[in-house]
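Input record (one chain):
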Amino acid sequence: MFRGQHEHTMDAKGRVSFPARFREVMAGQGGERLVLTRGLGDAEHPFLDAYPAHQWEQFERRVLALPRFDPNVVRLQRVYVSAAVECELDSLGRVLVPPALREHARLSKAVVWAGMIDRAELWSAQLWEEVQKAASGDLSFLKALWEQLKL
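The corresponding structure, as predicted from the sequence alone:
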C-alpha cells in the first residue's frame, strides 16, 4: 500500500527519487517498473498518477472489458491510457519523468509524492500545497465517507 506524503527534488533532467517506502511496496510485489500518466483531476491542479506496472496492466484489462465504442471509454483511452509511459527505476531508485508529463503536471524542482493506497500521485509541491489548503478548509465530506466505510 502506498501511503504518506514525501517531498523530493527533481533534477534538471527530470529524474526524481521514488520514495524508499514506495520502492519497498513495489519490491514486495515483484516489480521495479512504474507507469506514469496524467492524473484525472481538475485543470487548475494537474498531477501525475504512478502505478506499479502490474497494477496498470490489471487496469488495462478492465478497460478492455468495457464497451469499446462507448464515448466515455474512448475519452478515457485518449486522455488517460494514451498518455501512459512505462518507466524503469534506476539503480538509485529514481524515475525519469518524460518531458510531456512534466509539462502537463507543471513539475519543476520541488515535488511531492502522495500515497493513494494502490498508486501514487506526483505533484508540483506548490500545487500540492494549494490543494491541501483548499481541502482543509471544509472537512465535512469526511463524515459521509466515514459512514460509507462504516468507521
